[in-house]
Structure formats: C-alpha cells, structure tokens
Amino acid sequence: MQLLQQTLANWRQWNTSRAELSAQPVLVRELIGGRTNRSFLVAQNNFKAVVRINSLNGASLGIDRKREGLILELLQPTGAVPKVLFRTDEVLVSVFHEGRQWSEEDSHSIEQMTALSELLQRIQDVEVTQLQRRNYVQYCQAYINQLGSVFAIEGLQQTILTAAAAIDAADWPAVICHHDLVAENILVTADGLIVIDWEYAALGHPALDALRFHETDLPATCVQLALGPERLNESLKQLAILLCGMDDLWSLVQREFSEEVYEQIT
C-alpha cells in the first residue's frame, strides 16, 4: 500500500528519539479485527509501532480526525492511550503495546472493573475547552440522512431520535467520551489498561462509556430496549437506547458503504 510505504519512509518525522528508532521500520503484519480502518504492525529492532490507515468513508461515519487528534493530545499525559508518534488526516502512527483484548472474564472481575472505572475517571478528569458538547440528535440524524426510506419503516428512526433528544435536553457534565468502548478497543497490558481507536471520541455523556460494561445483559437492539426492561430508570433507559441506536446506525451506514465499494469493483 502506497500510503503505508510513504509513512514508513517518513520515519524521521515521527516523534521518537534516536535511541528508540534509528532506521526505517519494516512491515511485520496487518493487524486483523478493526471495523473501520486498516492497521499494520511495524518494527525496527525492539521498537514496535502501529500504522493506522484511515478509512476513506470517515466523514460519513461521523469521524473528525482533527477532533480525534486533539483528544489524543490531551490524553497523552494520562497513560490511558498509546503515545502518538505521527499523525495526518490519512494516517496515525502510535506505539504498539503488548497485551490482550478485554475479555468477558474481565467484565466479571471486580479488580478489572475497578481498574476500568478508575481509567475512565482519569480520562474524564481531563479538561477540554476547545470542543462543544456533542448534540446526539444531530449526530444520529447525520447517519439517518444517509440511509434509504426502508430504514424509517423498521421503527428505528423515531426510537433513536427520541432517546437522543431526551439525552440532549438533560443536564449533565460533558466529558471526554470514547463512544466506541467495545472490548476490542481495550488492551490489558502489564502496565495497566490502554484504550485505542479514539476516532469517535467527543465531549459526551459521562455514563455512556461505562454503560457497555455495567449493563451487559441489555437487549441486542435499541427497539427491543425501548420495549423494556422495566428495571432501568427512564434516564438510563434513554441513554442505553441511544447507545444501541448509534451502534445500529453505524452498522447500517458501514454496510451501505461496503456494498457500494463491492458494486464498483465487480
């Protein structure tokens, strides 16, 4: 891939010392599992980094690379994110961390859940003055506008927008929110937890990221969630609907993009 080779050739521009990196890294392998971008492990002696080639349809997915870069810069001192070595609108290079993905066992471990809560608190304690609070109605509507009329018939549209409007109207402190804190984006390392893939991050609701891990028995779709369960209070229920709804919208838009690409190459 031309962009990957170009990024490797520009290794002297990376934010590393001579002791860390003294020659051009080489490609080791592609890292499998990303849902949006393509990522590659590169190395030179003991130095390892991840080169992420950004998706071409980032704008349609609600991604703002400059916002992601700002948030990553602000989070660098927290140790919660990989060190950023090089960044453009097309590529992100960061330090590779040895570790494993968060697992179901971690979600049932008091120790690991405590560590995750402390990590999220450390992230949320970072003050951000350069960004405004996310408007969830506008964010969801931007996805909906890309989808066909069949989507409205499925009943998702009004369910999601009603929940988004309720959250937007509520009074809550806006904090750095990852917005895609799935297990695949949490690395368990010898030095603690590391969160990766911040492209959907923005100033958002302080309970949204943790909701994925504290409500693991929620129904699979936001429509099912809207019909229950009764045990959730109304505020938490609306937030859970919004979370599920954003996942549903992302999947639909990404599927349409994949189908368009497939049609172009066949």
Largest sheet, spatial ordering of strands: 1-2-3-5-4
- Major sheet characteristics: 5 strands, antiparallel
Helix and strand sequence:
HEEEHEEEHHHHHEEEEHHH
Q: How many angstroms does the end-to-end distance come to?
A: 21 Å
What's the level 1 CATH class of the largest domain?
Alpha Beta
Main structural class: alpha+beta
SS summary, helix count: 10
* Morphology: globular
Could you estimate the helical fraction of the residues in percent? 40-55%
Instruction: Give the domain tally.
Output: 2
What's the architecture of the largest domain, going by CATH? Answer: Alpha-Beta Complex
Rg measurement, Å: 19 Å
Give the total of beta strands. Answer: 10
pLDDT averaged over residues: 88
Segments where pLDDT lies below 50 for 5+ residues? 216-227, 261-266
Write the layout of secondary structure elements.
Blueprint: H1 2-9, E1 26-31, E2 38-44, E3 47-53, H2 65-75, E4 84-87, E5 91-95, E6 100-101, H3 104-107, H4 110-124, H5 136-144, H6 150-153, H7 156-169, E7 175-177, E8 186-189, E9 192-195, E10 202-204, H8 208-214, H9 222-226, H10 234-265
Antiparallel strand pairs: 1-2, 2-3, 3-5, 4-5, 6-8, 7-10, 8-9
Helix pairs in contact: 5-7, 5-10, 7-10
What does this entry look like structurally?
The chain has 266 residues and is an alpha+beta fold. It has two domains: 2-95, Phosphorylase Kinase, domain 1, CATH 3.30.200; 100-265, Aminoglycoside phosphotransferase (APH), C-terminal lobe (Aminoglycoside 3'-phosphotransferase, Chain: A, domain 2), CATH 3.90.1200. Helices cover 41% and strands 17% of the residues. The chain is built from ten helices and ten strands. The strands form three sheets. It has a five-stranded antiparallel β-sheet, with helices on both faces. It has a three-stranded antiparallel β-sheet with strand order 6-8-9, covered by helices on one side. The chain is globular and about 55 Å long. The model is unreliable at 216-227 and 261-266 (pLDDT under 50).
